[in-house]
Amino acid sequence: MNREPDFESSADMRLLELQRTSLGLTAPPERVGWETRYAGDSAPLIDMVTEAPVTKSAVLAVTLTATPPGEVIPGTVVTYALSIVSEGAAHAAGAVVAVPLPGGAAYRLGSLQIDGRAADDGAADQLFGNGLELGTVAAGSRATLLWKVGVRMGTKPLVTIPQVRAANAGIIGGGPVIVERKGSVSAFAGELAAADRALYEPRPLIPVEIPADELPIYELDAEEAIVEEAAQAALSDAAAPTKPVAEAGPITEPEPVIETEPEPAREAVVFYGALDRPTLAFFERVFNGSKAPTILQHCIFGNALACSVDADGNDPIEMKAHLAAQSQILHRVSLHEKLGKKEPITEYAGRLLANMGAIAPAAVRAGGFSGADRFLFANELHEPALAVLRKIAEERERWDFVKARQLTLALQAQRVLLDDDARAAAIDNALRAYAQHSMTVLQKLFVRLRIDRTTGVLFQTDAALDGAARALLAACAFALPN
User: Which domain holds residue 24?
Assistant: First the structure.
């Protein structure tokens, strides 16, 4: 039987199409398999976790798309479209949306539109920070946000994870959107100097008042180049874990046996780390408390995420002792701040205790899986990161606070060892997003240290980095068995 046309839904979709056309988007986003119809449809909603019908509750369906979806190069303008549809029978009260900016992208000022109307940059700051308040989203209605970013120099994909919450509504959809780069583009200092400044400095070319906590990025000198190089190398893609070949089925007919030499095991430099339940609970209190966390607390968190031992739990390069010493130094900074001591940051650099010369590839074998009380992480160091570590080892006399953080970032966990592929993918994406934001904050920190070389710079805040940390902690908490 033919159904009458849904004029209200069609008008809404036509409005969305006009908004996309005004921004230069010609093709509408493809409908994903899980997305339900509008609330007026006869088919009941299904809870994505319990698979039970949802008839009387508030439900927000979140869809994020990016155009172009991939193969981008520095200078490309990517347009994001976020759709939030209230598909339940009840209104969704107190809806808030936050979308942390990827580390390799810069927001195009004035490009944010909310329901087809231009929004000011204050709303954009809220969207990319602690969250933009949407208020009550009525049942059957839709909120649409569109904005543009410019792709900066770098090699890593742009990972965007929308975060939507409401006081009384369940959230479905809203998975991460990954925009891959085209080929391999180096982001070392020489290419940064030749890059278009507008690609990595999200400010208009008119005189504006620049806040003190947003210093401009400038061309790096020879001494600073290693920090930028290391930060990019620390985010190098981890190789996909090897999977054992499935055994052949039973042989029904006699066949000649061909003897072949077994393939040699793949060798690589892989370090492992762990994060137990008490440590996870500690950082949940730090990043979800009433007081905004500081850059120093992110340094401590990054130190906890660093991988330092081999598959057998051995510490051949004495990295575990080095990280323990750095952890003590970071906590000493916090203690001295409480005592009112504001000393030069060079006093808190410590020494490079690890023996970088002992780093050597080893056969990669399947490791254990995370248990009920802890996560096991892995980090495979590729040649760009190894080259940076060797350079650090050669310049021990120039060891400083920034290089200590840069080494920690290079060792940060890249993937979690879980037997649940879906939950492992969620944590891996959150790890990548947090590493990208950490790289951006490290670059800003280096710039600020050129002006203020005291520990005071460590007690500033960064809302985007806070959001990435909370997303990572939430993914980990969800994956731990009850």
Answer: 7-181
